[in-house]
Amino acid sequence: MSGTFVGMPAFPAAARVALADTQLRHNLAHATRTIRDKRAAVVGEVAQWEALRLAGAAVKESALLDLDRHLEQLEERLTAAGATVHWARDAEEACAVVAAVARAHGVDEVVKVKSMATAEIGLNEALAAEGIAAWETDLAELIVQLGGDLPSHILVPAIHRNRAEIREIFRREMAAAGRPAPDDLTDEPAVLAAAARAHLREKFLRAKVGVSGANFAVAESGTLVVVESEGNGRMCLTLPEVLVSVVGIEKVVPTWEALDPLLRLLPRSSTGERMNPYTSTWSGVTPGDGPQEVHVVLLDAGRTRALADEVGRQALRCIRCSACLNVCPVYERTGGHAYGSVYPGPIGAILNPLMKGVGQAGPEGAQTDSLPYASSLCGACFEVCPVRIDIPSVLVDLRAQVVDAHRGDRGVKGEAVAMRAAAWSFSDARRLAWAERASGVAGRVLTRLGRTTLPGGRRAAGRLPGPGAAWTGARDLPAPPRESFRAWWARTRPTQEDDR
């Protein structure tokens, strides 16, 4: 089973549970509003922001179209610099490489930089099965790990928690994982951060193996790049004797020059900062400085599948800024857990089906197939995406793929029956006229029974009976006009012809 699937039900069922959690909705609304406001302020400072977006999109698109050559150059440069490069087709192969390196050095723990790729492949769970503890060192990831929780946001994994909840997690769980929380711990952010810093310092100083991902990989020099805000990444990348980096193959860019617009787009789009507090780069092994053994795992895990999709491949431009999550009305109300994946929100709704494929059997397949529908298609995600991924267009295309994948399924679905009935009506003028008359009569009856008034004073039809009740239970059904266009045309056509 893919590490991206975390055992949640299909999105509609998971979303209903999330919507009933008022504390969750409050936490999400407050956090996303704060991040949106910060982003808007710093983006507004850039006069040519749209030109910068175009430049970033062009860099990523060009790199994807020539990906094979760039990856070969990256491998060549990394190897020349003393790194060992591994190619992993899937999560199982990638986890096996990291576990083998840890076993070779006889360690029972590793420290980790925040990494979506390692979360995607389920690395922590795979290492735990080998008796190796993987300690998250990003503050939000630490909160999630200590709480036995799952991340719900790409950038702020613990966005669904408030500071009072975090205090209780630290007091309850820190001692079992290492240095305990102080007895006088409060829920002040600075105090919580200090407790986490003291807890993690012991792990940094004793760890022999570090694990990271990478935000970018520069092919021309064989350089990996990690950007972060806390400094924990710098500690993981420099203190251990051995470093293993798991890098998605889509992270490659050809040159340092191509990296320039991306490093200007990412901090403003993600944390609302003008630049990243920490930008760490490394290329293989430097004698006497930093890790003396470096492994790089280049991960596919469905990325070539996504690359082959002419509409969806643009999703691989994603630089994991999470701007689309922060503006999405669906995410703001349901949170990330409802998406059942480490990639939540609008980008997760397209990345997961693209990388795993739609129409698969079992609960994982049903959950994946539900994701393209987890959107209102409002378009806000495209407006804020720093690399101009047209998420709404990809969602619509994936919905078509989901429908096509299930055309041969056994059993008759209500949607299919409705579409066949519509096709039967629209294929003959007389049948369509009859359907219009019948729907008009039914609509007027429902309107008399209904009590909803729409804007402008118009009455809304009541809830539809039978299967239609599920649709009208969450939507207003406008009352049909007293006269259809067809009837109006038949009544007024002689008059119109006389006027000519």
Automatic annotation (TrEMBL):
PROSITE patterns membership: 4FE4S_FER_1
Key words, A-Z: 4Fe-4S, Coiled coil, Electron transport, Iron, Iron-sulfur, Metal-binding, Repeat, Transport
The keyword Iron-sulfur is annotated on this UniProt entry: yes
Coiled coil: 57-84
Signal sequence interval, chain numbering: none
Pfam families recorded: Fer4_8, LUD_dom
One of the record's GO molecular function terms: 4 iron, 4 sulfur cluster binding
SUPFAM superfamilies noted in UniProt: 4Fe-4S ferredoxins, NagB/RpiA/CoA transferase-like
InterPro entries reported for this sequence: 4Fe4S_Fe-S-bd, 4Fe4S_Fe_S_CS, FTHF_cligase-like_sf, Helical_ferredxn, LUD_dom, LutB/LldF, NagB/RpiA_transferase-like
Region (Disordered): 456-500
Every LUD domain range: 71-299
Gene3D superfamilies noted in UniProt: Alpha-helical ferredoxin (1.10.1060.10), NagB/RpiA/CoA transferase-like (3.40.50.10420)
Superkingdom of origin organism: Bacteria
GO aspect biological process, one term: lactate metabolic process
The keyword Iron-sulfur is assigned to this record: yes
Biased composition (Low complexity): 456-470
Domain 4Fe-4S ferredoxin-type: 315-389
Protein name: L-lactate dehydrogenase complex protein LldF
